[in-house]
């Protein structure tokens, strides 16, 4: 179905936020003709002024969309599914689409299930979020430190997967991996969503403005991601609700174990938990 | 009782770990004559070779201890209290002692309660810990980013407090504050001990070695301090047990609130908690 990466020369970015803008910036720098659809003209103007895109518009038209053979969706999950439902008719035959969505079970079957048979959707998740949102925070250098996860299903072709793997590669991601949508959502529930929950909760515990002057690196590190886009993350959490609840409960179980050991003065359990965390954390420093 | 900072020229560091070694390094660089007591001769040798100290020994003798007019205790809490009980007779009359202990209610009344009336103990807590321990990780540059908390009691003299404030100042701490021992232990329970509990628990949740390749900055930031000296931290946690349990329960309450909102699909509560965390976290970025 696909025609070899070098023949995809016109790329459409739908949604010019921090991630969509960074894709546009990098792909333009690589010589692609990059177009964009955004809700606000000011976003298009910013991207044009900064040389991120060759052209763009706010209106979704058949004439514009049908010019592109590769389309990247950088929208929130629901907006992405709605867009496909409403406009998929505009794609050119043989187009390949991909996304950046941070949850997969809530999006991939829905989109693949309704998509035209002559268009292939290869789902991907660039794990390169930041605390800030909006095209003015676009910066493709963040990819160098980040992972790019492809989550294909049995509906995907080897050529489609390879095309998106190549996309992740030229965008400059440090590491590219392939996971099932289930394994992806479990992993994200633990590594990303649970950590954001913890940061939010820690920051909500007390009026810490007066504590700021005493704060060392520990509290600062654990709460960096407490500065959060509440609309996006609430949608992501709800779209992965069962997995996130499981991960929260796992964390609560282990937290109760440490709390009970402390309450009972059970030094050996406390030390054992710390030895385990120290051992496991050591694998992260080698990277 | 005290004789003015400039007249304290001989400083004894008891315990040459990461913090004690960093004190020694900086005070030597400032021109003080720094001596040390350590358990192992290899520690003394390392500190001598690196020019951190002028001399040192492993045996606690009256002849050695009585030479110093300022003594800094960089020991674990229990070891500090035991040292005072066993050797306080060796101090010279009018000596001032201070410490670096991370818990205060478990240490300060015990030491001040038994101390000779002609010696003053001014408690302090340099909040400059690192994941590594031992004199080979001593590096006084860490003070530049750290807070120095003095926790005097009604037994302390204004001159003694001022002396230790000056000590924190010349060591190069970014910020010097004065707190009661109760306020200190509450603050530490929340900002430092609770965050270490969270990091340890998060790392203990699952065998994450295979997750390391997917790990973004969030998980990495939240678990940096999961690499932990289990003997020191278990002692610190137990010495602050009531406060730490309160802080853990506060965190658990708020965590349950977010979990229940997620389970119920209560978007408004979720967003409200995220807006609050975002607002509060913003004060930390200004520093």
Structure overview:
- The structure is a homodimer.
- Chain A has about 290 residues and is an alpha/beta fold.
- Chain A has two domains: about 180 residues, NAD(P)-binding Rossmann-like Domain (Rossmann fold), CATH 3.40.50; about 100 residues, 6-phosphogluconate dehydrogenase C-terminal like domain (6-phosphogluconate dehydrogenase C-terminal fold), CATH 1.10.3660.10.
- In chain A, about 50% of the residues lie in helices and about 15% in strands.
- Chain A has a six-stranded parallel sheet, sandwiched between helices. A three-stranded mixed sheet of chain A has the order 7-8-9, with helices on one face.
- In chain A, helix 1 links the parallel strand 1 and strand 2.
- In chain A, helix 7 crosses helix 10.
- The longest helix of chain A has 24 residues.
- The first copy, chain A, is elongated, with a radius of gyration of 21 Å.
- The two termini of chain A are about 35 Å apart.
- The model of chain A has no long low-confidence stretch (mean pLDDT about 95).
- At the A-B interface, helix 7, helix 8, helix 9, helix 10 and helix 11 of A face helix 7, helix 8, helix 9, helix 10 and helix 11 of B.
Key features of this structure:
homodimer, six-stranded parallel beta sheet, alpha/beta, Rossmann fold, 49% helix, 287 residues, 9 strands
